[in-house]
Amino acid sequence: MSSAPAPVELERPDIAEEVASDRPWLAIVWNDPINLMSYVTYVFQAVFGYPKSKAEKLMMDVHHKGRAVVANGTREEMERDVEVLHSYGLWATVRRDD
Amino acid sequence: MKVRKGRDGAVRIRFEPEEAALVRTLMEQMLDLLGDPPGADDELAAVGISDRATTPEDPVLARLFPDAYRDDGEAAGEFRRYTEMGLRDGKREAAGIVLSGLADAFGAPGGKDGAGSRAEKASRAEVELTTEHAQAWLRALNDVRLALGTRLDISEEWYEEAEGLDPSDPRMPMYAAYDWLTMLQESLVRAVW
């Protein structure tokens, strides 16, 4: 991701991914050099209704680890989420949890 | 260019005329790239389904409409058949919202015959956006940045690379446009948030 100069809050480790085994499909967002860190955080809040702290943590995971699981659920739900993320220009994919 | 948010929640962007002209040109190029909507006689298209399921060859289109499955070409194709048309419509709509916002503020661009179009204002003007329209602007500006960034093969170190370019390099105007759009988008995100 690209960063315009912006203050970034420190990572909060307590908000981990809550992947339940009965929700076996994942929506994943991948790092890219074009999308802005601020925009990606904004999209996570707008699309998923996540609080800012969780949206920022996910954004930082994408930035530093190259990708992050941003949602889990049924395959249909994850395809719907990925379609919405594509409408915002994020690079998102679906896969089964393993 | 200056972005601010009023007490009423509306976002206002003040553009110099040449900035507005740049945004307009880029949005028109995006509409050209996205192509025309399907004809009314296409029955599958009427329900939002396309018969094309392959990843676009143009790297910009492949970035705007990425494969939704990395290791499953069949699933990626099916996803594309059912979603790409709607996504294209959404991107066309967002670019259209930007163009009409600019036309409201600056007047329609002067056509060759000049008939029926207001004269383009030569001074700066302000675009006023509802939250919904500001979100469409964010998406449309991001689509244009994705297109420019993909054409330039932008990396996270692009700024240093651009600084090392010869001023006469033909890519310089694209880098400048990309840089300016990045500032505009950053300001707009912060105003909308």
Secondary structure elements and pairings:
The complex is a heterodimer of chains A (about 100) and B (about 190).
Chain A: E1 25-30, H1 37-48, H2 52-65, E2 67-73, H3 75-87, E3 92-96
Antiparallel strand pairs in A: 1-2, 1-3
Helix pairs in contact in A: 1-2
Chain B: E1 2-5, E2 11-15, H1 17-34, H2 43-46, H3 59-64, H4 73-106, E3 125-129, H5 131-151, H6 158-163, H7 172-192
Antiparallel strand pairs in B: 1-2, 2-3
Helix pairs in contact in B: 1-4, 4-5, 5-7
Query: What is the 3D form of chain B?
Result: globular
Number of domains of chain B: 1
Annotated CATH architecture of the domain at 36-96 in chain A: 2-Layer Sandwich
Let me know the largest β-sheet of chain B: 3 strands, antiparallel
Helix-strand makeup class of chain A: alpha+beta
Please, could you describe this protein's structure?
The complex is a heterodimer of chains A (98) and B (193). Chain A is α+β, with helices and mostly antiparallel strands and 98 residues long. Chain A has helices at 37-48, 52-65, 75-87; strands at residues 25-30, 67-73, 92-96. Chain A has a 3-stranded antiparallel sheet with strand order 2-1-3. In chain A, helix 1 packs across helix 2 (52-65). Chain A is globular and about 40 Å long. Mean pLDDT of chain A is 87; it is low at 12-20. Chain B has one domain (2-35, 90-192). Helix content of chain B is 57%, strand content 7%. In chain B, strands 1-2-3 form a 3-stranded antiparallel sheet. Chains A and B meet through helix 1, helix 3 and strand 3 of A and helix 4, helix 5 and helix 7 of B. Chain B: InterPro entries: AosR (IPR018561). Chain B: It comes from Actinomadura harenae. Chain B: This is DUF2017 domain-containing protein. Chain A: Residues 22-93 form the Adaptor protein ClpS core domain.
What would you say about this model in short?
Chain A has 98 residues and is an alpha+beta fold. Chain A has helices at 37-48, 52-65, 75-87; strands at residues 25-30, 67-73, 92-96. Chain A starts with 24 loop residues before the first strand and ends with a strand.
